[in-house]
Design brief:
- By secondary structure, the chain is α+β, with helices and mostly antiparallel strands.
- The chain is 11% helix and 15% strand.
- It has a domain of 60 residues: 2-Layer Sandwich (Alpha-Beta Plaits), CATH 3.30.70.
- Strands 1-4 form a two-stranded antiparallel sheet. The protein has a two-stranded antiparallel ribbon with strand order 2-3.
- It starts with 31 loop residues before the first strand and ends with a strand.
- The relative contact order is 0.29.
Amino acid sequence: MMVHQSVEDHLLVPVSKPKIGIAGKTGMWRIYRPVIDYEKCIKCYMCYINCPDVAVVVEKFNEYPKIDYDYCKGCGICATVCPKKAISMVREE
């Protein structure tokens, strides 16, 4: 007998977690940073799924994603894959 589980029954856990490297936190040399417009965000988690640095954090299902700027390198993949264009890349000051 097969038991079907809902999406809420699964944890959103990254395969790996960012760590401080030999050169420090990788977000220190970022030129552009992603900013999420929560008015546009539909919580599809494409940014979370596609972030190569595990810098997009979702703590619980149905919560908005957050950016961990300590480890975000500013590659812009999250902004590119967002179907609602809710993520914009803003130049660091």
